[in-house]
Design brief:
The structure is a single chain. With 122 residues, this protein is an alpha+beta fold. It has one domain: Alpha-Beta Plaits (2-Layer Sandwich). It contains 2 helices and 8 strands. The strands form 3 sheets. Strands 3, 6, 7 and 8 form a 4-stranded mixed beta sheet that branches. Helix 1 crosses helix 2. The radius of gyration is 16 Å and the shape is elongated. The N and C termini lie far apart (35 Å). The relative contact order is 0.20.
């Protein structure tokens, strides 16, 4: 993921016509930001981190967050544990909104999709 110092796409000059280089955001940093946004969501107890568990027939990523980033766009698979008594549909929708807002406002990346998988209620 590349962005210039002011958030313009890779290779675009600034107002004066100068190109200062690129800023690269590591997937690990993106995962951390996504995790923090999800954990602040009411009804979310934790990120599911069990590597051998299956979600709809596919393995859960070891950190509970799957990422695919291309051309300033990101697709996210988010595996959550919900708090007991929480409305699961609302928890999922709120987590999508919180994560999308964080990614778009803090990083300037466009969110292509956020898939939320609620793995358990704790």
């Amino acid at each position: 993921m590349n962005a210039s110092h002011t958030g313009r796409l890779y290779g675009e000059p600034d107002v004066e016509g100068f190109y200062l280089g690129t800023v690269r955001i590591a997937h690990r940093a993106l995962r951390t930001m996504i995790e923090q946004a999800a954990l602040r969501t009411p009804g979310v107890a934790a990120i599911a981190r069990t590597p051998r568990s299956l979600a709809l027939g596919k393995p859960i990523p070891w950190q509970g967050i799957g990422l695919s980033a291309r051309d300033q766009q990101v697709a996210i698979d988010l595996y959550l544990l919900a708090q007991r008594g929480a409305n699961l549909a609302e928890v999922g929708a709120r987590a999508q909104e919180a994560v999308a807002s964080a990614v778009e406002s803090l990083l300037g990346l466009r969110v292509r999709e956020i898939n939320v998988y609620i793995q358990d209620v704790v």
